[in-house]
Backbone:
C-alpha cells in the first residue's frame, strides 16, 4: 500500500520563475493539495503544459510532466490518456495557450470528451512576452501591441465550451485556495473532459483585472441554494450574462468518454506486448495473394 | 513478338469504375505468374475529370512504367486525345464508341483500333451501364489471351460481396466482351503474347498498405493523422487493422494535433506514428523539433506529392527531401529513410520504429505518390526478418534522484522511463534542460546537451539501412537515385547493359544521416555521375555536393511535371551527356 502523501510530496526542487504575488502560485498549491487529497501517486500523474508563464507550472509539480509547444497541450494530453488510461492526466495552460493559439484543439478536446482535466490559468494578458493583450483581455485594454486600446471582444471560453458539448465546467479564483482545491478535485473525479478556468491575476502587467478588482466582480453560483449544475440552458444564461463573473461548478453532466467510445481493449496501449510476434501477423498477408 | 511484357492504360472520367477494373487486371496478371506494377494518375476531385490507371505486367519486376503504353482502353475521346502519343507503334486501342466516333485526323495508322460500343452493350444487353468496365475487361482478356478462368474467379471475388444480381451482371459482362471480340474482329493484336506461369509465394500490395502493415508488425499501436492525399490510405489501413491488436488510430482535427498526439502517445511508451504529405508535414515541423529535444521516438510517414502549397495533390514529386532533412528551428538528430519498392516500404517502416526507439529521435519514412499509391507484386513478406528492439526503455522502478532521464552517455542515448514507472518522475521540456530535465540556460550544459543529442547521428551509423548498389560497380557511369525512381533507373541500367554500356546505380535507402562514406566509395573511378530525381532544383544532387563536395561531370536528370520517369527519360540524357550512342533497339 502506497504511503499517504501530502501536498509537499507533489513539489519539485525547482525554484519558481513566477513573479512574487502571481496568481499562478494559487493554482499550483491547489493542484498539489487536490492530488494529495485524492490519494494520487506522482508516478501515476501525467501533467502536460503549454507555453507562457502558465506553461512553467509543469516544472513545479512532481509528476511525469511534459512542457511542449505553444497551444498543443490538449492533443498531447488526450493521447497520453488513450495510451494509458491508468494515468491521471491533467493539462494546464494560459488564456493565450488555450483560447488563442490552441483554440482549435480546445474545441475538439471538448467534442471528444477524454477523461482528462484542463486547467486554464486566465490572467487576461500575455505575461511572459511582457503584457500584450490576450483573447480574454477586455476591449480597450491598452498594451504595447494595442496602444489605442484592444479592439477585440474577449472570448468567453466556458460558454464556447458549453456550446461545443462540454461535460464539466468550473471556474475559480486563485486567491480563494480552498475553493480551487475543491473545484480541482471535482474536475479530476469527473468522468470526462473537465475544464477549470482559474482567474489568476498578473500582478506585473494587468493593472485592471487585479486581486481587488476580482474581489468586487465575482460571485459563486452555489450562493443560490437551488443552483442546478445539470441545467444546461441556465448555465448558458449564467455564463453569458453581463456583470459579475460566476465561479464554482457551473455545469456538469454525464457523457460517454473518448476512451469508452474508442473500442480500446482491456490492456492499456502502453502495456501491450509488442515484442512477441503475433501469429495473426502472417495471416494478414492472405488478403494480398 | 513481345512475350509477357505489356502496359495497359485505362483512361476515362474519375469515378467511372476504371480503378476497380484496373485492380482486377493487375490481379489476373499476378495470378498468371507475371510481375505487376500499377500507377494511378487521377485528378483531385471525386467525380469527373480525366483519370487513367496504368497496369504494367512483365516477366521480371520493373516497379515502374515502360517507355510507351501498349494498350489504351479509352472510355471517351478525351482519353484518346490525351494519351494517343504515349502509345507504342504497333500497340492497340480499345475505344468505347457508344457516344462518339473517332474524328478524322485523330487516328494513328501505326496502331490497331478496336472500337466496341461498351456502354451500349452494358445498357441494352446487361441493363447496367456501370458494367462497361467489366465488358472492357472481357474484350481485353480475349484480345491478349488472359486466362479466362482466372478472370472469372477474380471478378467473382470482387463482386460476390455485393448482390447475386451484380455478380451475375459482371460475369455476363465478361462473356459479352469476349464474344464481341470473337464476332467482330478477325485479327488480334499481333505483337503480344501472354504465357501463364506459376503465381508462387507472392503478394500484390499498395505501397501505403505495406507501410501500414510494417508499422503494425513493428508494434505501432497508436496512429494519429489528418486526411491528406496521398497519405490517407495509411490512416485508413491502421484504423481498419490496429484495433484488433489493442491499438487505436485517431483522426485528429489537424496535423498540429496529429503530431502532438503522436508525441503524447510515444512519451507514454506506445510506438506511435503519423502519416502525412507536404502541407501537413509543414505544419508538423515545430512538434518534430520538440520530439528531437524531448528525445521521444516518433515515426512520421511522408507520402510526397507535388508542391508548393496545394500543388497537384494527386501527382508525384520528390521535392520534400530538403524539408525532411533541414526543416525546423534549431537542430535535432533525425533519420530519413526512403524505400524504393513496395516490399522495401514494409521492411524500412519496421526499421524506422526500431531506429526511433533505439536512438530516441524522429524517423521519417519518405515515400511518394508513384510508390505509395502504386501496387506491385512482391515475394511474401518475411516476418522472421522483423523484430522489435526497444532500446533503452526502462520499465522497472528506478530510484528518484539517482535516475536522470537525459543522462549523458557514450552513445548519447539515455535510459527512458515512461509514466507509471516508480521513481522516474521528471519534466520533459522543450526548453533546454539538464540531464535531470530541469530547465537551464547554462552555457556549459547547452554545449553538452547539443553534443549528446546530435552525437546520436554518429552512434546510429552502423544501424542505418544500407544502400543497394546495382549494376557493374566498376562502370564509368554512376547513377544516384531513391524512391520510386528505383524502378525506372533499374530498368535503364538493364537496357544500357544489353546495349553493351555498363553503369552502376546507388540506391539510397537512408538519406539522412547522409551515407557519406558509402557515397565516396561508390563514386571512386566514375567518369560520369548522374543524379535522377523528381524536382526542379536537384535537391539530392545538391545534398551530395553539400556533403561530399563537387564531383566532376555530375549531371542532374530531373523531372518536375508530376509524373514519374519512364526509362527512356533516363537513358536519353545518359546517352547525351556521356556522349555514348545507345542503339535504337534497346529503346522500348
Residues:
Amino acid at each position: 500500500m502506497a504511503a499517504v502523501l501530502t501536498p509537499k510530496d507533489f513539489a519539485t526542487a525547482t525554484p519558481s520563475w513566477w513573479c512574487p504575488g502571481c496568481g499562478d502560485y494559487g493554482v499550483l498549491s491547489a493542484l498539489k493539495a487536490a492530488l494529495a487529497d485524492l490519494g494520487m501517486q506522482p508516478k501515476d500523474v501525467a501533467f502536460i503544459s503549454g507555453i507562457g508563464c502558465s506553461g512553467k507550472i509543469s516544472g513545479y509539480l512532481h509528476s511525469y510532466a511534459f512542457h511542449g509547444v505553444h497551444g498543443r497541450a490538449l492533443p498531447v494530453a488526450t493521447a497520453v490518456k488513450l495510451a494509458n488510461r491508468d494515468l491521471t492526466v491533467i493539462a494546464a495552460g494560459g488564456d493565450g495557450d488555450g483560447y488563442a493559439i490552441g483554440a482549435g484543439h480546445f474545441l475538439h478536446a471538448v467534442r471528444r470528451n477524454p477523461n482528462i482535466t484542463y486547467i486554464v490559468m486566465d490572467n487576461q494578458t500575455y505575461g511572459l512576452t511582457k503584457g500584450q493583450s490576450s483573447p480574454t483581455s477586455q476591449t480597450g485594454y491598452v498594451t504595447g501591441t494595442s496602444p489605442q486600446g484592444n479592439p477585440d471582444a474577449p472570448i468567453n471560453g466556458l460558454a464556447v465550451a458549453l456550446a461545443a458539448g462540454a461535460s464539466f465546467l468550473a471556474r475559480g479564483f486563485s486567491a480563494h485556495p480552498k475553493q480551487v482545491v475543491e473545484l480541482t478535485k471535482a474536475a479530476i473525479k469527473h468522468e470526462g473532459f473537465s475544464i477549470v478556468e482559474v482567474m489568476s491575476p498578473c500582478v506585473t502587467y494587468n493593472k485592471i483585472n487585479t486581486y481587488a478588482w476580482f474581489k468586487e466582480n465575482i460571485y459563486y453560483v452555489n450562493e443560490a441554494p437551488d443552483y442546478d449544475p445539470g441545467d444546461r440552458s441556465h448555465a448558458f444564461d449564467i455564463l453569458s450574462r453581463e456583470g459579475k463573473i460566476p465561479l464554482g461548478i457551473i455545469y456538469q453532466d454525464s457523457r460517454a468518454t473518448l476512451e469508452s467510445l474508442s473500442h480500446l481493449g482491456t490492456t492499456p496501449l502502453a502495456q501491450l506486448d509488442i515484442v512477441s510476434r503475433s501469429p495473426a501477423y502472417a495471416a494478414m498477408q492472405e488478403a494480398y495473394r | 513478338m513481345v512475350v509477357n511484357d505489356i502496359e495497359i492504360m485505362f483512361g476515362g472520367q474519375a469515378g467511372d469504375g476504371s480503378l476497380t477494373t484496373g485492380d482486377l487486371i493487375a490481379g489476373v496478371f499476378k495470378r498468371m505468374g507475371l510481375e505487376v506494377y500499377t500507377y494511378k494518375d487521377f485528378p483531385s476531385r471525386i467525380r469527373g475529370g480525366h483519370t487513367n490507371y496504368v497496369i504494367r505486367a512483365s516477366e521480371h519486376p520493373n516497379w515502374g512504367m515502360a517507355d510507351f503504353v501498349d494498350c489504351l482502353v479509352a472510355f471517351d475521346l478525351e482519353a484518346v486525345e490525351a494519351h494517343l502519343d504515349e502509345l507504342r507503334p504497333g500497340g492497340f486501342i480499345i475505344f468505347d464508341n457508344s457516344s462518339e466516333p473517332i474524328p478524322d485526323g485523330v487516328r494513328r495508322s501505326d496502331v490497331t483500333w478496336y472500337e466496341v460500343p461498351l456502354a451500349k452493350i452494358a445498357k441494352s444487353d446487361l441493363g447496367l451501364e456501370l458494367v462497361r468496365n467489366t465488358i472492357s475487361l472481357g474484350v481485353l482478356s480475349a484480345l491478349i489471351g488472359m486466362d479466362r478462368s482466372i478472370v472469372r474467379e477474380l471478378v467473382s471475388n470482387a463482386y460476390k460481396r455485393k448482390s447475386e444480381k451484380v455478380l451475375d451482371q459482371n460475369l455476363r459482362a465478361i462473356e459479352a466482351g469476349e464474344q464481341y471480340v470473337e464476332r467482330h474482329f478477325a485479327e488480334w493484336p499481333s505483337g503480344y503474347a501472354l504465357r501463364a506461369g506459376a503465381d508462387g509465394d507472392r503478394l500484390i500490395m499498395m505501397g501505403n498498405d505495406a507501410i501500414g502493415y510494417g508499422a503494425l508488425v513493428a508494434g505501432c499501436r497508436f496512429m494519429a493523422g489528418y486526411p491528406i492525399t496521398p497519405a490517407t490510405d495509411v490512416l485508413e489501413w491502421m484504423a481498419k487493422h490496429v484495433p484488433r491488436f489493442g491499438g487505436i488510430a485517431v483522426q485528429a482535427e489537424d496535423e498540429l494535433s496529429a503530431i502532438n498526439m503522436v508525441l503524447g502517445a510515444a512519451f507514454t511508451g506506445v510506438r506511435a506514428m503519423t502519416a502525412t504529405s507536404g502541407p501537413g508535414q509543414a505544419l508538423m515541423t515545430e512538434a518534430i523539433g520538440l520530439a528531437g529535444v524531448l528525445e521521444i521516438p516518433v515515426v512520421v510517414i511522408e507520402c510526397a506529392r507535388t508542391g508548393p502549397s496545394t500543388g497537384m495533390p494527386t501527382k508525384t514529386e520528390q521535392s520534400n527531401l530538403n524539408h525532411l532533412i533541414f526543416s525546423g528551428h534549431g537542430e535535432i538528430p533525425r533519420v530519413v529513410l526512403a524505400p524504393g519498392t513496395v516490399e522495401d516500404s514494409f521492411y524500412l517502416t519496421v526499421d524506422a520504429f526500431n531506429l526511433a526507439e533505439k536512438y530516441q529521435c524522429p524517423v521519417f519514412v519518405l515515400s511518394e505518390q508513384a510508390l505509395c499509391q502504386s501496387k506491385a507484386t512482391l515475394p511474401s513478406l518475411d516476418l522472421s526478418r522483423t523484430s522489435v528492439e526497444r532500446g533503452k526503455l526502462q520499465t522497472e522502478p528506478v530510484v528518484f534522484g539517482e535516475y536522470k532521464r537525459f543522462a549523458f552517455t557514450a552513445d548519447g542515448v539515455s535510459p527512458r522511463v515512461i509514466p507509471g514507472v516508480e521513481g522516474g518522475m521528471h519534466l520533459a521540456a522543450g526548453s533546454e534542460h539538464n540531464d535531470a530535465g530541469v530547465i537551464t540556460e547554462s552555457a556549459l550544459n547547452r554545449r553538452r546537451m547539443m553534443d549528446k543529442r546530435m552525437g546520436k547521428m554518429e552512434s546510429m551509423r552502423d544501424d542505418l539501412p544500407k544502400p543497394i548498389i546495382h549494376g557493374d560497380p566498376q562502370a564509368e557511369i554512376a547513377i544516384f537515385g531513391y524512391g520510386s525512381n528505383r524502378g525506372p533507373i533499374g530498368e535503364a541500367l538493364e537496357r544500357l547493359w544489353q546495349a553493351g554500356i555498363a553503369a552502376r546505380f546507388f540506391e539510397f535507402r537512408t538519406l539522412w544521416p547522409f551515407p557519406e562514406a558509402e557515397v565516396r566509395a561508390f563514386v571512386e573511378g566514375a567518369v560520369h555521375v548522374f543524379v535522377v530525381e523528381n524536382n526542379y532544383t536537384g535537391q539530392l544532387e545538391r545534398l551530395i555536393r553539400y556533403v561530399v563536395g563537387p564531383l566532376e561531370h555530375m549531371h542532374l536528370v530531373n523531372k518536375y511535371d508530376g509524373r514519374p520517369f519512364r526509362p527512356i527519360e533516363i537513358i536519353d540524357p545518359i546517352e547525351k551527356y556521356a556522349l555514348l550512342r545507345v542503339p535504337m533497339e534497346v529503346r522500348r
In short: Chain A touches chain B through 53 residues (CB under 8 Å).
